[in-house]
TrEMBL record:
The keyword Transmembrane helix applies. The keyword Iron-sulfur does not apply. It comes from Streptomyces bugieae. InterPro entries: CbiM/NikMN, PDGLE_dom. This is Energy-coupling factor ABC transporter permease. The lineage of its organism: Bacteria, Bacillati, Actinomycetota, Actinomycetes, Kitasatosporales.
Amino acid sequence: MHVPDGFINAPVSVATGAVAAAAVAVSLRGARRELAGAGAGQGVGAGAERTAPLAGLVAAFIFAVQMLNFPVAAGTSGHLLGGALAAILVGPYTGVLCVSVVLLMQGVLFADGGLTALGVNITDMAIVTTVVAYAVFRLLVKVLPRRRSSVTAASFVAALVSVPAAAIAFTGIYALGGTAEVPIGKVFAAMVGVHVLIGIGEAVITALTVGAVIAVRPDLVYGARGLARPLELRTSPLAPEGAGTPVPAAAAAPAAPRRSVRPVWLAGVAAALVCAGGLSYYASASPDGLEKVAHDQGIDAKTRDHATKDSPLADYSVKDIADPRLAGGLAGVIGVGATLAVGTGVFVVVRRRRNAVPARNAGPAAEGTGNA
């Protein structure tokens, strides 16, 4: 659903750019809390050193899986948008940043999604999908039984709903600033119709990924936080009066040693490299939902060439390499590495800024104590 240059006029492109910038700014503040473990019953900074690399991994994984276009109807394909997956795995604010990083890397390196349309793409594919998916997910988790399977089921429905929601959002944006005279009713029907089918693929990928992670490390899934009730130790009924108050197990026994996230991180990187470097060769070559609708409805009448169309990685293929499998696979590997590096770097900076706030706030108090 990457919108190219020329679909949306300049005023609306600027407006969506402002919306995207504001949402990213808000997400940076929210991501500081999510990456620091706040809001999940953890102290600020608890486990924070492992969250930034995992968030960068989620961005790289979304980039890789987006290369795997799957057929959904005659002559049409779809691919993961990733908002639901990111929100459930690392949190909604961090999820917006993950998808935004992916869109930025795709636009700059691979000429996928117009640079003047970056605000449109972030608004549609990062903000709308993440907000809608996480709202649906939280609603379902509240009403479903407190089980791991409920998290997986909720992730399926949330992802399914998020894709047609993004199609509706695009239709609204096009109604405001479309550059071609096309009946909006036809655009709406075509976009929603095909993206409901794409949403099924999105839901399957999201549920399988969330289910796989939650099966081995539920503590790493943001959407599963608080799933299990804290263990309480109760004293015997024969104990003296006042000794029968339940005591949280965490207070009665030393904390268990923290499990390493390295195996999960390595497995995630390996999966991303396999998807982008190998499986992408077998992806559907049919146009995706937006491309198909744009061609059929005439939305693409004023499409402009991408500013980085001459990039050595344009169209997810390394130029000057004759073998298409090698050229595409190498481009995918480069994309995974670049997205992982940029994403992790962004989240490390965000996390450190969060950790620096308590230290700055504690400074004057500490100095006052020393002068007393």
